[in-house]
Design brief:
CATH superfamily of one domain: Tetratricopeptide repeat domain
CATH architecture of one domain: Alpha Horseshoe
Largest sheet: none
Radius of gyration: 29 Å
Structural class: mainly alpha
Number of helices: 22
CATH topology of one domain: Serine Threonine Protein Phosphatase 5, Tetratricopeptide repeat
Strand content: under 5%
Helix content: over 70%
């Protein structure tokens, strides 16, 4: 939130502040209030309005607001100033304040397109997608080929996880404009969110074709992530490497490379990238745990335990405790490993990997009966899992 955010009472009711009139000067002559001349008022308001919107474009929000407040001091329901205040507040993340200005504008200037668009965008930013869609659909009743509105509604449906309506609207945009980047990117995100990684890859690769000379780093990491999810790790590597050339410290590129090498069982290379992330973010418990796993897989158990403990010092992490239990099992500290795994199962009773590790712990300790009992306990939850079934068959 911006540090220039005003208190709600002052910020929401500029026209009621009697001191505001004294700051509205004619031709910049300090101390001389605007005279009551309609022509002069109109000219002054027009200039202040233009200046305010230009200042918003330049991200000079405080001065932009000052311009609009000067207008509202003499014309409390001026639509340009009310929308301007809404736009300024929205740009600095004060969405509730912005919403009030847009609503106030619409109360006096019903159907003002800029106020409606701003209000819908505020609702979207506040995750009130139903309200945003209601406003945008008013436009579509009169203009169902408005690409800007169609993509906004499709985005909102995507955020609501309404796959069908979102896809229909994105595809309608592509029928009208086959290379529309917002629709292509939206479809990429939509399919990825619903774990349809091959379909997502199709749209991200389309974006790559359209912008091959100056591709956005996010397109590269998105293609890499699709390959990562599809376990086509070698293909994913090249896209994360391209992203890293563009931005050497990019978290998503570093994570993607580390995870691809992890998937390929190249633990040392994976570890190099985990540690590069930790140089930037030493308290990232997920990365600490991943690095701990890499050290464990390399047989460097003391180093792995150090990383797991660092992760747990930040916050409880299931996989850090699991990693420590696996090391205890490898070191034949079966009781210690069993106690840890049972506690984890109490906290996450549907995590199949915990049952497999506990069953393996019993097996290595020569207790075949308890190993079978553990796996059957998981199956009684009604969850079908191939790894659990295969282990039972082997036993």
């Amino acid at each position: 939130m911006s540090d220039i955010k005003q208190s709600e009472g002052d910020f929401m009711s500029p026209a009621r502040n009697t001191d505001r009139a004294s700051v509205f000067f004619d031709d910049g002559q300090a101390g001389q209030p605007l005279t009551a001349s309609p022509d002069r008022d109109t000219a002054e308001i027009s200039e202040l309005s233009k200046k305010g919107y230009q200042l918003i474009k330049e991200n000079n929000i405080a001065e932009a607001m000052d311009c609009f407040l000067k207008i509202l001091a003499v014309d409390e329901n001026n639509n340009y100033a009310l929308v301007g205040m809404g736009d300024a507040a929205r740009k600095k993340g004060a969405f509730r304040d912005a919403t009030a200005f847009y609503q106030r504008c619409l109360a006096f200037h019903q159907g003002n397109n800029y106020a409606l668009f701003g209000l819908a965008d505020c609702y979207k930013a506040m995750n009130q997608f139903h309200k945003a869609i209601e406003i945008w659909e008013q436009y579509l009743l009169h203009d169902d080929r408005n690409i800007t509105v169609l993509t906004r509604v499709a985005d909102a449906y995507r955020k609501m996880r309404d796959f069908k309506n979102s896809k229909v609207l994105y595809l309608r945009v592509l029928e009208m404009e086959g290379t529309n980047p917002y629709a292509i990117i939206g479809l990429g995100h939509l399919h990825y969110d619903f774990k349809e990684y091959r379909e997502a890859l199709f749209y991200w690769e389309k974006m790559l074709e359209l912008n091959s000379d100056n591709v956005d780093i996010r397109v590269l990491t998105s293609i890499g992530n699709c390959h990562r999810k599809l376990k086509t790790f070698e293909e994913g590597l090249q896209f994360f490497e391209l992203a890293l050339r563009k931005e050497p410290d990019n978290f998503y590129a570093l994570f993607g490379l580390a995870d691809c090498y992890r998937g390929m069982n190249h633990q040392e290379r994976s570890l190099g990238f985990w540690n590069r992330i930790l140089e930037q973010d030493p308290r990232n418990k997920v990365i600490l745990t991943r690095a701990g796993d890499a050290y464990r897989n390399l047989g460097q158990f003391d180093k792995a335990l150090e990383y797991y403990e660092r992760a747990l010092n930040i916050e409880f992490d299931t996989y850090a405790v699991l990693g420590m239990a696996v090391i205890a099992k490898i070191r034949e500290k079966f009781e210690e490993a069993t106690v840890s795994l049972k506690r984890l199962i109490q906290q996450e009773p549907k995590n199949y990997r915990l049952f497999i590790e506990l069953a393996d712990c019993y097996l290595k300790n020569g207790d075949k009966y308890r190993a079978i009992e553990t796996l059957e306990e998981f199956q009684r939850l009604g969850i079908r899992n191939n790894y659990v079934a295969e282990m039972l068959d082997r036993i």
